[in-house]
Amino acid sequence: MRIHELSPKEGSTHRSRRVGRGIAAGQGASCGFGMRGQKSRSGTGTRAGFEGGQMPLYRRVPKLKHFPLVNQKHYTIVNVSQLNVISPNSSVTLESLMELGIITTNDGPLKVLGDGELTIALEVTAAAFTKTAQAKIEQAGGNCQSA
């Protein structure tokens, strides 16, 4: 088989519209483009993204760095160094940290960050852990559970 022998499958293509050949043909005179105006003329009409003179979307949106994320997740954060004041082998949750006064406001689910050192074994239940925080908790003899 050669490239010049290829053809579309039978019935998969339609013949092109024969426009501008009189009123009896169904697409005479204006050829289906309506009466007058920019979209009836020859050529492409308007370019992609044109909004009729209004400032288009691609020029309205900001393009600089440091713009806020739209649906950003907000966490209540705590570092592993702050967990050293808790008694060993106890369960750590967002509620227990609020009761102990380590965290003063509930800004969302608990996330444990890995800054500092942890010397006691704890059973930490949180929504998210950083890799270093999880490694330090497990190295101290504790375990991490996702909430």
How confident is the prediction overall: mean pLDDT?
92
Determine and state the CATH class of the largest domain.
Answer: Alpha Beta
Structural class: alpha/beta
Helix content: 10-25%
Number of helices: 3
Strand content: 5-15%
Count of folded domains? 2
Task: Report what the structure shows.
This protein is α/β, with parallel strands linked by helices. The protein has 2 domains: 15-61, no CATH class; 76-146, Ribosomal Protein L15, Chain: K, domain 2. It is built from 3 helices and 6 strands. Strands 1-3-5 form a 3-stranded parallel beta sheet. The protein has a 3-stranded parallel beta sheet with strand order 2-4-6. The mean pLDDT is 92. Keywords: Ribonucleoprotein, Ribosomal protein, RNA-binding, rRNA-binding. Residues 1-52 are annotated as: Disordered.
Could you provide a short overview of the structure?
The chain is an alpha/beta fold and 147 residues long. The chain has 3 helices and 6 strands.
What secondary-structure arrangement, pairings included, does this model have?
Blueprint: H1 57-60, E1 76-79, E2 91-92, H2 94-100, E3 110-113, E4 123-126, E5 128-129, H3 131-139, E6 143-146
Parallel strand pairs: 1-3, 2-4, 3-5, 4-6
Domain Large ribosomal subunit protein uL15/eL18: 78-144
Family: Belongs to the universal ribosomal protein uL15 family.
Keywords: Ribonucleoprotein, Ribosomal protein, RNA-binding, rRNA-binding
